[in-house]
Design goal:
By secondary structure, the chain is an alpha/beta fold. It has a domain of 98 residues: GMP Synthetase, Chain A, domain 3 (2-Layer Sandwich), CATH 3.30.300. Helix content is 27%, strand content 29%. It is built from three helices and seven strands, in the order E-E-E-H-E-E-H-H-E-E. The strands form two sheets. Strands 4, 5, 6 and 7 form a four-stranded mixed beta sheet that branches. It starts with 10 loop residues before the first strand and ends in a 14-residue tail after the last strand.
Length: 157
């Protein structure tokens, strides 16, 4: 990791209507537009979806670091999220974000420990720590089934 502070830049190009193009150093362009709820076409990533994507990605990447530091091996992590946008105190804003991480661990792993590691990752996530919106974590842990032995078609059963 490089020393702090870190600086990140994003460029946006758009006109008076339609889609805009997001770009950043070394990344492919990304089309963005308002969601249908705000009169947009619904066929591009909206700022609301991009915020949730940032929360999801930050959770995953933070979880990787926390899991490694905790000695927790895992098979995979799928994260779904939902953000609620409403009027609060006369301002339209996200009023709540819910994360549903579904973690798959190897047989023999402690599911309660895995949940504690997910909770620690949520608290350590840079993006959620930067938001004033409350983030609720609803974790799930699945234990992977035993790995099936590969069968050799040339060896009789």
């Amino acid at each position: 990791m490089t020393p702090f502070p870190h600086r990140y830049g994003v460029d946006l190009m758009g006109g008076p209507h339609g889609h805009a193009a997001l770009s950043g150093a070394g990344t492919p362009p990304l089309s963005t537009a308002p969601p249908p709820e705000f009169g947009g076409p619904g066929d591009a990533w909206s700022p609301e979806q991009l915020l949730l994507a940032a929360v999801d990605a930050c959770f995953l990447f933070t979880f990787r670091v926390v899991a490694r530091a905790s000695g927790l091996d895992f098979v995979d992590l799928d994260v779904s999220s939902e953000g609620i946008v409403d009027r609060a105190n006369g301002v339209t804003r996200f009023t709540q974000i819910v994360l549903w991480p579904r973690l798959t661990v190897a047989p023999g792993a402690d599911p309660d420990r895995a949940i504690r590691v997910m909770e620690k990752a949520e608290r350590a996530c840079l993006v959620t720590a930067s938001l004033s919106t409350p983030v609720r974590l609803e974790p799930r842990v699945d234990v992977a089934g035993p790995v099936a032995a590969a069968t050799d078609p040339h060896v009789p059963a």
